[in-house]
TrEMBL record:
Annotated source species: Sutterella parvirubra YIT 11816
UniProt binding sites for Mn(2+): 152, 154, 223
The protein's name in its UniProt record: 1-deoxy-D-xylulose 5-phosphate reductoisomerase
Pfam families noted in UniProt: DXP_redisom_C, DXP_reductoisom, DXPR_C
Species classification: Bacteria, Pseudomonadati, Pseudomonadota, Betaproteobacteria, Burkholderiales
Residues noted as binding 1-deoxy-D-xylulose 5-phosphate in the record, renumbered to the chain: 127, 153-154, 180, 201, 214, 219-220, 223
Amino acid sequence: MTQKTLTILGATGSIGRSALEVVRMHADDWRVGTLAGGSRVAPLVEAALETNPDRVVIADEGKYQELRRQLDAVGLGHVEAAAGADAVADAAAEEADAVLQSIVGAAGVEPTFRAVEAGRRLLLANKESVVCGGGLLMGRARATGALILPVDSEHNALFQCLAGADEAQKAKARLILTASGGPFRGRKDLTGITPEEAVRHPNWSMGRKISVDSATLMNKGLEVIEASWLFGFPGDRIDVVVHPESIVHSMVEFADGCVLAQMGTPSMKNPIAYAMAWPERIEAGVERLNLAKIGRLTFEAPDTETFPLLKLAYEALAGEGGETIVLNAANEIAVEAFLAKRIAFTTIFSTVAGALESIPAPKPASVDDILALDREVRRRVRAALGMKEGA
Ligand code: NAD
Ligand code: MG
């Protein structure tokens, strides 16, 4: 049997590293064709040493020489090297049996579109590109026949629960996304929170940006928007329920009131392996669920008074223009400022709300429109927070 090739974008991140573990378990069936990372050369070269890919790409243009030198130094002189955002986007489009898109943030917009336009099988973790790409992205996917398999655990769960449903059933169904509630669940006073506290997630070990998003509940807001586009459900048929154990990854309620849930030990290796193997299933290297040992699963309503970004995300989704692009870009800058200790945790809320109120959000007609609005929001939010361009 011939091996399938996988392109991994965001190979040095939390999802990227989990994917490398899954690939390692299935080395007879899968090999890595291309590895792409953001700006850190050493972990990228380390991943290349393990996987012996055809190509390694780094987004930071200034790191090309360093990447080439380190690849040569470890005996990977035969591996092609490239640098720059365009090279990452090209990597998304190039021939491969599947492309895992696990870049963080709106930097993933262009690579996602390029993979979809090339008709690739896209294993999609980068939720920000769905939040920004919206109907345009889904339309392109229908046109090219690109298959989008969600890797975000909730969406992977929904995909599994919807597998047997036809369009008529989906039209009357409700999506129920579960949320862990993050590290500050139950708190009313969010003053004085430090970045270290915010990134300490109770159930998942993830990148810093998504960890802060989980702490503010913006992650769930982005996921409501992501679910709306991926599955074609309006916001008023998408609910969120807090489930601190993170065992039920999400649910679908059908017209008759029956609810299907997908459960498992919380590990991103599950959705990654599912998306790689679909429609088959393969070993994911995840501890089996032992419900008797867990004992009890609990659920509660989200506290949208204390964590207002979830409500704002629903409002942005209901907008007619590019509101979700504004929401996402403002959040990315605010999270960056919070992680750099420039603003308070709660200033993330006011920054995003302020951007949605003050920045015009025309409906994008192209990827260029999406990127232009994203840039404009970043510029304005940086200015409002007194940050330098690119600081
Ligand atoms: P991370 O910060 O750990 O990794 C991000 C990766 O993207 C790194 O490899 C980094 O080098 C790369 N990158 C950053 N900027 C880039 C650029 N401009 N061009 C190319 N590559 C760039 O993040 P993560 O936690 O792995 O999350 C990645 C994506 O997956 C996010 O969109 C996140 O919301 C989503 N996601 C993550 C998890 C999780 O458990 N970590 C779960 C669900 C969804
Ligand atoms: Mg998720």
